[in-house]
Amino acid sequence: MRELQESFLHAGARRAATHLLATMSMTLLATLTLFPWATTAQDLTIRAGHLVDVARGTALTDQEIVVRDGVIVGTGPWRHSPGATPDGAFLDLSDRYVMPGLFDTHTHMSLVVDRQKDGGNFFVTSLLDNTPYRAIQGVANARDMLAAGFTTIRDVGNSGNYGDTALKSAITEGLVPGPTMHTAGRIIAPFGGQFFLQPEKRSLGEPEYFYADTPGEIVKAVRENLHFGADFVKIVVDDQRYIYSVDEIKLFVDEARRAGTYISAHCWTEQGARNAIAGGVHTIEHGPYMPNDVLEAAREAGVWIVGTEFTVEGLSQSFTGDDLSAIEAEHEAFVDRLRRAHALGVPYVFGSDIVYTKEGETRSSLTFTILDNFRKAGIPPADQLRAMTVNAARMMGLDNERGQISEGLAADIVAMPSNPLEDTRALEDIDVVVKDGRLFRMAGRTGY
Ligand SMILES: [Zn+2]
Q1: Domain residues for 97?
Q2: What's the distance, Cα to Cα, between the start and end of the chain in Å?
Q3: What tens digit of pLDDT does each residue of 162-191 get?
Q4: Mean pLDDT of the chain
Q5: Directed axis angle between helix 246-258 and helix 270-279, to 10°?
Q6: Cα(157) to centroid of ligand 1, in Å?
Q7: Is pTM, for the whole model, over 0.85?
Q8: In this structure, is the dihedral angle defined by the CA atoms of residues 37, 38, 41 and 45, taken in order, positive or negative?
Q9: Disulfide: which of 165, 281, 378, 428 matches 265 by Cβ 3.0-4.6 Å?
């Protein structure tokens, strides 16, 4: 506790400081007790040395953020005289860059591909790991993501039999810490899903995939998924020779829309992306092979690109096949597509699709490697931050709740020592995380 106090609470008027330390200690203790996550949000004042405005791409110095019941109720210049501090819980981040919590819009919390165990083949992973175990893996990944600064995620399926919706419920109920989640439930796909089965073992692709091959099956699959807790519907358009047609995709979109939600479409091929855009989907996941006219069609239709720009390592660890030149070509296709999408003004957001593991790394540390490709594509840091905050919130329909530090939005706030507007590698050093007004992490310590 002493080092926390020393690093965050600069000396001020003695009485104020003592009061402060007591308040902070209580706050920290509250976050470090056995069920820290169940504590209610406290009123909190934050002093931000540099407050990053992600929408404008600027930073203001010496600002304050006032939080009540987990919601930001005011921001503005720090207005207390030197040495004085506000009443109540106070977080002094006067030596930090402060910004809204990050979004990762393409995650699989309950899928952990381990090459030692499954050869890097997630079909094998789905056979070896049952849903309860995968939900527990999801708990660990969600906690790790939150500690790294990801306060909102979209989980796009591959969680066995609804492991993702169970994880979301546990987080929402305060049972375990984690980001705000939107989940897809079971991914709906033509027969086989993303796997290649043999006739004697035709059932092995379920429940990982929810097959829907006829209009009736499509409607039923959407309804069943939503019934079991999915927030949106994820479909695989084109991983088999038989890809979803425009009419089939329209049926998905209409059914989802009637229930107040949208279709997220996995597309790998050019034709798949064309069909998805014509069918009216909300997002294209991946989409490495989209020529400019397809990107322009996406822009005109308001379709978001969730890019999942894979690194060479990510491609080689997550999928079978060791043809390095093919992997490098695929990686380059992703970077080139991102560069063109940015130049053409197509709306895109940050989505990692990290499922692989690496010695000494965590899910969140690997997630940040995707930004290497944003840098490689020449995306300015401010636009990288928008793709991870305000634009991601818009895509998820959460822009009235999260994604910026402004009045009326949830207090999802992170801080780091250096300026992310200069270089987004700064995000890898996030060491303070506030989620819905609750201090979860501070200077390397986490509330769990
Ligand atoms: Zn994925």
Answers
A1: 2-101+404-446
A2: 15
A3: 999 999 999 999 999 999 999 999 999 999
A4: 90
A5: 40
A6: 8
A7: yes
A8: negative
A9: 281
CB 410 within 8 A of CB 421: no
Task: Please say if the pLDDT value at position 31 is more than 90.
Answer: no
CA of 111 to the centre of ligand 1 (A): 10
Asked if residue 310 and residue 183 are part of one domain, the reply reads: yes
What's the 403 CA to ligand 1 centre distance in angstroms? Answer: 22
How far does residue 78's CA lie from ligand 1's centre (Å)?
A: 43
Residues 196 and 258 in one domain: yes
Stronger pLDDT, 446 or 164, i.e. the higher one? 164
Statement to judge: residues 87 and 160 lie in one domain: no
For residue 347, what are the contacts with CB-CB under 8 A and spacing of at least 6? Answer: 299, 302, 303, 304, 305, 391, 395
pLDDT in tens, 263-277: 999 999 999 999 999
The total number of structural domains that make up the chain: 2
Rounded Cα distance, 352 and 307, in Å: 8
* pLDDT one-digit tens code per residue, 367-407: 999 999 999 999 999 999 999 999 999 999 999 999 999 99
CB 341 within 8 A of CB 139: no
**pLDDT > 90: what percent of the chain?**
84
Token representation of residue 249:
């995709």
State in Å: Cα 57 to ligand 1 middle.
Answer: 29
Distances from the Cα of 441 to the Cα of 31, 146, 279, 281, 376, angstroms: 9, 9, 43, 37, 31
